[in-house]
Each structure stands twice: as structure tokens, then as C-alpha cells.
């Protein structure tokens, strides 16, 4: 196999090293300046090196990235957004492999080499969105790894047949099934959660559920999920997305919930939306809870915002949580990279020997500098392949 060496780079801002890649794997890391006979050597110019970013919460199936501008419309509520999307998506070619591939390429350009994405499953499109995302991933020949969540955007119980679609998706190999606001959308939290956990137990897949409710209603939903996770034995297989209530609860109530989340391996993903309550992320980290960052939907019928750059989400997270010290920024950078490993079922995701060769070089002094400025990616290596240079794709 071709040996490639990315020389003179500073992992996490440390001393310069040379990173040797064989195939898709980091094979060796040595102090900078060693000879590397018969290897392709690429000068890293002492740039900051980070592991590839992991986008732990995306919706790549329904973006209009690269298409003519689409104006925001519809009623500005969850129900209104769902209805508007159902009315408009077909005219904008949603879902389609080509549109999804454009989103994944933009992720790669910004250094994201793996993503967990929710993909709409409903009575109108069936499992077509899943097929489109799988085709888009295949076109990129392993450059970006995609893990799927079959997502019932239009509700689970209120539409007869949606549970059957989720069951089919799980039977056909989708890694996770999703849920959505069991109180507000289906207005029957017991039926929704019982149905989801029954499918997950049957197929051994994970559950990744959107929860937007605040305050005690949100806490009630958490308690139902805790109870079902404990009874089902799905430890380490349940993730809460958004979970805004967690940042709104009194400290004692929150601590009680965090202890149970940690015990059951219930993880969390956030897109750090402006105006939301900060998460108790320090306590989450100290308790061993998984926490990942994601872009959510970008340039879709829900929002005209977003560019696929996870560093910008990291900056939003840092601002929301009042990060000031270099150590805080380092932890945020880890959420964007190594902390996302569990959402892709990776044992290791870091700049270490034996890991998949996902490497991002930035002209930055350290992680804090990279997050605050979000400079162009000087080099992006994905599974051992150079996929972007100086902010532009080369694949």
C-alpha cells in the first residue's frame, strides 16, 4: 500500500510530529524531521492538526444546498414547519441522492469525515430517503462515514403505518430509529415510546429521539425514557437530541436525572441553538455522559441558515456556555471530534496510531484559536485520502 506522511504538524497544538498513513489507517507517529524513504511526504507547515470532525446530529436528506434559493415560508411552529415541508419537498427534489451528495461534500470540505444523520421516514416517501442517503454515501467511496437514524418527522402514533416503516428500516439495517416529541406531536407518550423500544429490542438497533419540550414536561419525557431504557436493557443505545429542558431544570432535579442518564449510557446531542438554555455540560462530562455536536438541518425547508461547518457550531456552543479559558475551548473541540466517536460506534477516533486516518489541518495556534476564527481547512484527509486542500474539495 501507498505510505503517506503528513509531516510537521501539531496534534491538538502540541509539538510537531510526522503522521504516517498506510491505507485508511494512521500507522505511525514520530517526532518531526525523520526520514521517510519510499513514502509520499506532504509538508504540514506546522499547522494545527485535529481529528476529523464528527457531526452527531444532521438532516442531510432534505437540504436544497446548491439549488436555487428557496424562501422561508409556512407557519413558524413545529406543526407548521412539518406541514410546509410536506407541501414543498417534492418540487425541490427532496429526497434525492444528488442533493444529499452535495451536502456531504460540503461537510467534507469543512473537515467533517463522519456524520450521524436523521432521514425522514413517512407514509409519503416510505424509505426512499434512506436509499438516497446510502447512494450519496456510496458515491463518495468511503470518504465520509454515515450512520442513519430512520426519523418519523411527521409523528409516530398519529399516522397509522409509521411504526411499520420504522420496523422495516431497522430490519433492513438502519443503525437507529428516531422519535419526536411524544407528548406534543403524538400526544400519547406511552404509545410512542413503547412502540420505539419494542422495535429497538426486536432488532438490536439504537434509539435517537428529538425532544423539544421544556421544563417539567421535558423532565417527564426523560423519566419515561429512563424507565424504558432500564426495563429494555438498551443500555448505551439511547440518545436524546436537543433536550432543551435539561438546561432549564433546578440543579437538584437535574443532578438526579444526570445520574440516571450516566448509569444507563443515555447520551445527548445538541446543535447549540441561539437563545436556548445552556446545558450542564461540565457535569455531563464529569459523569461520563456522551455529548456530541451537530449542524441540524442546513438550508432546508425548516431554516435558511447553516453552511455545514461544525467549527461554527462549536463556536455557538462555546458562546452559549460562556467558554473563556483555553481548557474550555479544548473540551468543545473534543466534542466536535473525539467525543463524537460513540455516535459512529467507533472505539477510537483521534490522532493516534491504529485510528482511521481522518485528519484536519488548520492555520491556527491551538483549539481555541481554531474555534474562534474557524479558518479555512488547509488539508482534509478522510480514511487516508486527501479530499480537500486550502478550503477546496479535490475529489
From TrEMBL:
Location of the Amidohydrolase domain: 97-388
GO molecular function terms attached to this record: hydrolase activity, acting on carbon-nitrogen (but not peptide) bonds, in cyclic amidines
UniProt cross-references to Pfam families, sorted A to Z: Amidohydro_3
Signal peptide: none
Native species: Brachybacterium avium
Protein name according to UniProt: Cytosine deaminase
InterPro entries: Amidohydro_3 (IPR013108), Metal-dep_hydrolase_composite (IPR011059), Metal_Hydrolase (IPR032466), Metallo-hydrolase_Enzymes (IPR052349)
Amino acid at each position: 500500500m501507498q505510505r503517506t506522511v503528513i509531516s510537521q504538524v501539531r496534534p491538538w497544538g502540541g509539538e510537531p510530529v510526522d503522521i504516517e498513513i498506510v491505507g485508511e489507517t494512521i500507522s505511525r507517529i514520530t517526532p518531526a524531521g525523520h526520514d521517510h524513504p519510499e513514502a509520499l511526504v506532504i509538508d504540514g507547515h506546522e499547522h494545527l492538526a485535529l481529528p476529523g470532525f464528527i457531526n452527531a446530529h444532521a438532516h442531510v436528506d432534505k437540504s436544497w444546498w446548491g439549488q436555487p434559493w428557496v424562501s422561508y415560508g409556512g407557519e413558524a411552529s413545529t406543526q407548521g414547519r412539518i406541514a410546509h415541508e410536506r407541501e414543498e419537498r417534492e418540487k425541490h427534489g427532496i429526497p434525492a441522492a444528488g442533493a444529499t451528495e452535495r451536502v456531504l461534500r460540503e461537510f467534507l470540505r469543512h473537515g467533517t469525515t463522519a456524520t450521524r444523520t436523521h432521514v425522514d421516514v413517512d407514509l409519503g416517501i416510505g424509505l426512499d430517503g434512506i436509499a438516497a442517503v446510502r447512494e450519496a454515501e456510496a458515491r463518495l467511496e468511503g470518504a465520509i462515514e454515515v450512520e442513519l437514524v430512520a426519523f418519523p418527522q411527521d409523528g409516530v402514533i398519529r399516522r397509522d403505518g409509521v411504526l411499520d416503516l420504522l420496523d422495516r428500516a431497522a430490519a433492513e439495517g438502519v443503525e437507529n430509529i428516531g422519535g419526536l416529541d411524544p407528548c406534543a406531536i403524538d400526544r400519547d407518550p406511552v404509545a410512542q415510546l413503547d412502540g420505539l423500544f419494542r422495535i429497538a429490542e426486536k432488532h438490536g438497533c439504537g434509539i435517537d429521539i428529538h425532544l423539544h419540550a421544556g421544563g417539567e414536561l421535558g423532565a417527564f419525557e426523560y423519566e419515561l425514557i429512563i424507565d424504558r431504557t432500564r426495563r429494555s436493557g438498551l443500555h448505551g443505545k439511547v440518545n436524546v437530541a436537543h433536550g432543551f429542558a435539561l438546561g432549564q431544570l433546578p440543579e437538584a432535579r437535574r443532578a438526579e436525572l444526570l445520574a440516571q442518564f450516566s448509569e444507563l449510557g443515555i447520551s445527548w446531542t445538541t446543535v447549540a441553538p441561539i437563545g436556548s438554555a445552556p446545558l450542564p455540560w461540565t457535569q455531563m462530562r464529569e459523569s461520563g455522559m456522551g455529548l456530541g455536536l451537530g449542524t441540524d438541518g442546513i438550508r432546508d425547508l425548516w431554516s435558511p441558515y447553516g453552511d455545514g461547518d461544525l467549527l461554527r457550531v462549536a463556536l455557538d456552543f462555546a458562546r452559549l456556555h460562556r467558554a473563556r479559558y483555553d481548557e474550555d475551548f479544548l473540551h468543545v473541540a473534543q466534542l466536535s471530534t473525539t467525543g463524537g466517536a460513540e455516535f459512529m460506534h467507533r472505539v477510537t477516533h483521534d490522532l493516534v496510531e491504529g485510528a482511521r486516518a481522518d485528519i484536519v489541518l488548520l492555520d491556527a495556534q491551538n483549539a481555541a484559536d481554531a474555534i474562534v476564527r474557524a479558518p479555512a481547512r488547509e488539508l482534509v484527509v478522510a480514511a487516508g485520502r486527501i479530499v480537500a486542500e486550502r478550503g477546496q474539495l479535490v475529489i
